[in-house]
Each structure stands twice: as structure tokens, then as C-alpha cells.
Amino acid sequence: MFLLGMPAVYRFFKHLASPPKKARKQVRLGFNRIYILPTKAGLLFFALLLTMLLISINYTNPPGYLLTFLLTGVGLASIFHTHRALFGLLVSRAPTRSVFAGKTAHFQVVIRNPDPLFRHGIRITWSGLDQGPIQDIASKSEARFSLPKLAVARGKLTAGPIVVSSVHPLGLCKAWASVQLAMSCIVYPQPEKNGPKWSPSAKVSADLSKILLESYPAEQDGDDFSGLRKYRLGDPPRQVAWKAMAKSNTLYSKEFSSQGEDTVIWLQWKDANQAEIEATLSRLCRWILEADKTGHPYGLILPNQEISPTTGPAHLDLCLTSLAVFQDHPENP
């Protein structure tokens, strides 16, 4: 009956050992954070010792006393070493790479051992789970652990509390500490699998650009005239194509590029707009990935944000992050 009640005892102590609500970048495992209880093997071991003691008393057997007290000393010493395996460890976070929705994020945790003592069998798990990676940590060194977590939806994925534990050396007792680290990662929208390719509605058609090309000088401030695009709020008056407006009854802005500069791609919310916001974000996500592969500068226009055209991994991350944290507003189309 006592063994059957142990899960409830563990849950009670885990509740007491729950981490503080405030997340931290680094946590030191001290006496106030480490809890220790016997495992099932430990309970059986101590029950065996009690049985051996009763038999030794009943038969007045000195060798039985000797063996019982010897094993008792070993069990008590193992409690100290199990607690010592965690004491003084420094638990901190490491950068976590962004992922797409539906994929698995791998949160990185670093445990540093500042003492000359070798630490054996250090395990890290999510709170409430029993399975997780185990590593030994040499003296004055560190070990990196990876904890997987499914990214269900776009946005900011926050890591929950983690549990650092050890049953070293004999597995008779389990020492653990609950830690809440300030860990999170950005979850990009899931790219649309099948759908229309990017349509440059923000650009003027090639025929209209060809007709109007002769209306403007070949160079302006050392740049070549590359074409027209639809006017966007904030464009300077000197950039407005007034002659084009007279011919097409639509307000356009002139674009100039340096010699040999690549074509600029603009990805707009209205081009990908669908009935559901998540579907629109998924389509824009796919377009951004496709535009990045072309090597051409590309920009992104959302209802509440505009990102200037450029290239590179940092720009790709900025565009995808903007989609990940996008919030619906009443003014959205």
C-alpha cells in the first residue's frame, strides 16, 4: 500500500518544487531548489534492510547485523551523492532557432559545472515528463541539452518549466530541481503547399512602362529609370509620375536603380489576401521563400508594416518574423 501511494507523494513534492513564475536567463541549483525522494528501487532496498534487521534480531545473528548496517551506510551515503550531483550546477539558456508551424522546435539548455567534481547522469526533461537526454558533465566544463517541443501555431513559442534530475550513483534516490528559464522562439507561418505564384500587381504592367519610359530622363542622381509602380503613401512628390497619371488616370511613382541592379520584388498583403488571415500569411510565407531563392531584392507590405527591399538571411528572418507576430487589426482589408 505504501508503494501505491508514492506517486501521490511525488506529485506533492513536485508541487512544492514548482519553479517561480518569473523566468530567468540563468539559475544556480542550491539547497532551496533541490528536492530528493527514494525511487521504487530505493523503497524496495530499504524494505529489504528492514527485513534483514528483523531476521538478525530474531536469530541473534551478528553477521546479519554487520551486513544490514553496512548496506544501510551505503544507502545513506548514496543519498548524499545523489544530492551532490545537482548542487551548484548553473543552468542557462542558449539561442533557439526559429521554425515553421507544424515543425519541432529544439530549445537549447546549457548546464555548466563550475566545481572540480565530476557530475554523472544529469538528465533534463520538460516538467511532467520522465524521458529526456542524459549526459555526464566533467569538472569545470559544460554540456548542451536539446529539448524538442512541437510548434503548433505561428507566433512566439515559450518554453515551459524544465526539470534537472539525477539518480546517480545507485538509483536508490532521485534528486530534482524545477527551473523556469526565459526561453522562447519564433514560429513562422506554415508555407502554403499549393497555390498561385506571386503576381506583381504592385508594379505597372510592362506595356505601360514601355510606353511611359520615354517620358522620363534616363538618369536621376546617377541612377537609371527602371520603371513605375503604384503610388504608396509617403512617396516624395518628386518621385510621383504625373505624366503617367495623366495617361492612365492612376497615381504612380517612378523607380530608379543603379547600373546592373537587380529587379526589385514587392510582396503585398492585398495580392495574397484571402478569406482567412492564416491562409494569407501562409501564402505570403511561400512567396517570401520563393523570392529569397531568386536572389533579387524583395520587400514586404503588410497592412501595418512595410519592409524595404534587400536580400540576405537577416532580411529573410525579418520578413518571416513579421508574418509570425502579425496581429489582426480592424483596419486590415
Question: Which parts are unreliable, with pLDDT below 50 for 5 consecutive residues or more?
Answer: 201-212, 217-222
Give me the number of helical elements.
8
Query: In terms of quaternary structure, what is this?
Result: single chain
Strands in their spatial order, largest beta sheet: 2-11-10-6-7
User: What is the CA-based Rg, rounded?
Assistant: 32 Å
Separation of the first and last Cα atoms = 64 Å
Strand percent estimate: 25-35%
Percent helix among the residues? 25-40%
- How would you classify the helix and strand content by structural class? alpha+beta
Broad shape: rod-shaped
What is the strand tally?
A: 18
Give the tally of structural domains: 2
- How is the main sheet built? 5 strands, antiparallel
| Global mean pLDDT | 83
Q: List SSEs in N-to-C order.
A: HEEHHEEEEEEEEEEHEEHEEHHEEH
Task: Give descriptors for this structure.
333 residues, alpha+beta, 2 domains, 5-stranded antiparallel β-sheet, 31% helix
